[in-house]
Amino acid sequence: MTLIRSQAGIKPSAGANAVSTLLTFGALPIVLAICIVVFQLGNPRFLSSANLLNILQQGVFLMLIAFGQMLVLLAGGFDLSVGSVVALTSIISAQVMVAVSLAFPEAPGFAIGAGFLATILVGLVCGLVNGLGVAVLKVNAFIVTLATASIFRGVTLVISQGLQVSGLPRDFVYGIGSGFFLGLPVSFFFALPALLAIFLLVRQMRFGRYIYAIGSNIRSAMVAGVQINRYLIACYMLCATITAFAGWLLTARVSSGEPLLGGEFPLNSIAAAVIGGCSLRGGEGSPTGVFMGVVFITVLANGMDLLRIGSNYQMIVLGLVLVGAVVLDRYRLTDATKR
């Protein structure tokens, strides 16, 4: 880093400060704008109203999961089981809705409600398992959530026998999954209250202050009287529950229970959160940054689809994006240390 001397000592130059700002969160809007220009030049349909609605519909699911991932990252952990929670939710909620529909064919709303209740229960149980492993058993979050990802995926395959669950209520598939209200996807209106609740929880309530404290310095938080285990478990339960909710909405979108659904979400949700300013060390990040990160990931995937870039190459690009996000996270640590 270029340095200049002054009477107060050695300070970073204005150019170095600009580079520091550019390489952190400030770079994201610029990179996003460049991507939009490139994709629009590559395919004029990119900024069409139909494609923008498609981007919104695609981004809703990742937005929910990334907001859940943010809670865990702020507390100093992360959750690799989100993809498996999506698949487990898809199968269990679909099976419940089909069973209730057969028992009460004249009440599709009852079947949808039962499926939603099953979704919440799946999320709470999966989150509780993760939270107990991290908070009570004191096992590293990477190991716990990697193990539970395998367990949840295995349970999903056992329950479903690897088969899709079809025959979902029409109101669920065509109303929630592919319906529109006021010109916007119905799934967006379902997701909006959950996203607003997480935003308020993190930015306006004591819960948010405490998880920032835990992620920043767990010993100091403990000395300050924060009940560490309670808040860690709550973070994992909230993450899994909002992930399960996203899995329920995604099940409506694909119109069947899918045992292999959600495989891309662990990578994409962590990448979106870290790109948006969340630190892998915990204690840093904001809902606004995560929102920007999700927009970037969704625009990138959609633009590559329109440019007919193969899925294998897209996986390479997303992997490179995650590496870049980790490098930026390391840069933020180095920059903060120098200050």
TrEMBL record:
Residue ranges crossing the lipid bilayer per the database entry: 21-39, 59-78, 85-104, 110-132, 139-160, 180-202, 231-250, 313-331
Keyword Flavoprotein recorded: no
GO molecular function: transmembrane transporter activity
Cellular localization per UniProt: Cell membrane
Membrane topology: Multi-pass membrane protein
GO cellular component: plasma membrane
Protein's name according to its UniProt entry: Monosaccharide ABC transporter membrane protein (CUT2 family)
Organism of derivation: Bradyrhizobium sacchari
